[in-house]
Amino acid sequence: MGTIDLHTHSRASDGALTPADLVDAAAARGVSVLALTDHDTLAGIEPACAAAEQHGICLIPGVEISVTWQRRTLHIVGLGVDTAAPGLLNGLAWLQRVRLQRAHDIAARLEHLGVTTAFTRAHDLAAGGQITRTHFARLLLEDGLARNMQQCFKRYLKPGKPAHRSVTWAALEQAIDWIHTAGGLAVLAHPHGYGMSGAWRRRMYAAFTHHGGDAAEVCCGNTNPRQNQDNAERARAHGLMGSIGSDFHSHAQHWLALGRLQSLPRGLTPVWEHAALAAAQT
Ligand code: AMP
Ligand code: MN
Ligand code: MN
Ligand code: MN
User: Fold this and answer.
1) How confident is the model at residue 184 (pLDDT cuts 50, 70, 90)?
2) Distance, CA 180 to ligand 1 centroid (Å)?
3) Single pTM value for the model
4) Ligand approaching nearest to the C-alpha of 14
5) pLDDT at residue 255 above 60?
6) pLDDT for position 256
7) Residue whose CA is closest, atom 19 of ligand 1?
8) Which end of the chain, N or C, is more open, meaning fewer C-beta atoms within 10 Å of its C-beta?
């Protein structure tokens, strides 16, 4: 069996590649089971499926839903979702409206900081996909206001910084419910990616499990073996399955390489063996 990568992005949100090019790149790296999980949209799934069929690899329809929990933003990945499920589509349509309004607000703040025509430029960069903070970061780089992506977020786009605009995304239980009613599995994305203390991470795992979450992303593109082990222990303690995903956005972010992941630690049920995802792999 080839490599498994259950967390990736395309131009439908903040990835650099078109859905078809992402699938080509994954196939070239020996990925045999790939999930496309764009932020709050399913728009890339159809072209990705067509490309996957050509390569003979399995494409799992997915999404990464923005959630507000305890005034923090969490990301919940849905895997194996029915892309025509009304509950999920309505939920994502609402998040897309929140995103669009937030983009206008962020753009206004950036204009004050000297970035001209920020909304139009971000809108053009997104090319019909969801507008994300990654797009605004690219504008800041273009205008020479920061040296790299990291700096864009640190100086301007993170909570508390001048171009940040706080919004309320979906509730945790809502996101899990949309995924379940679409026949999918809910995965707690990159548990070490929220800058939380161990105590907060434990609360997050408990809340996610309490609301019926199915799996945790145990191995991510930018985690170390100690963090993976911590995730594995928490997932086991809560009876969650384990998932692996690079969170690939672009070839420029080489540390989040597509399909280059550690294997799941022993004693965890791989989420891709669940019946909800097995159907896509036949
Ligand atoms: P949004 O969902 O629009 O708030 O955008 C969040 C996205 O910004 C994440 O999914 C990442 O792709 C990206 N991002 C967040 N923080 C950073 C960072 N420090 N450096 C680079 N990209 C980041
Ligand atoms: Mn992203
Ligand atoms: Mn994420
Ligand atoms: Mn992601």
Assistant:
1) very high
2) 26
3) 0.97
4) 2
5) no
6) 61
7) 150
8) C
Helix axes 172-181, 198-210, angle to 10 degrees: 40
Handedness of CA 132, 203, 77, 151 (dihedral sign): positive
Q: Which residues of 161-197 are buried (b: 16+ CB within 10 A; e: fewer)?
A: eebbbeeebbebbbbbbbbbebebbbbbbbbbbeeee
66 lines ligand 1 (CB under 6 A): yes
HEC readout, 93-108: HHHHHHHHHHHHHHHH
Element (H, E) at 234: helix 225-237
Alpha-carbon distance of 95 to 93, in angstroms, equals 6
For residues 144 and 138, give the distance between their C-alpha atoms in angstroms, rounded to a whole number.
10
Closest CA to 185 of 199, 198, 175, 195: 175
pLDDT in tens, 200-234: 999 999 999 999 999 999 999 888 999 999 999 99
The dihedral through the CA atoms of 16, 21, 27, 28 has a sign that is negative
Residue with the two structure tokens 């050509």 = 54
Question: Quick one: which ligand is closest to 150's CA?
Answer: 1
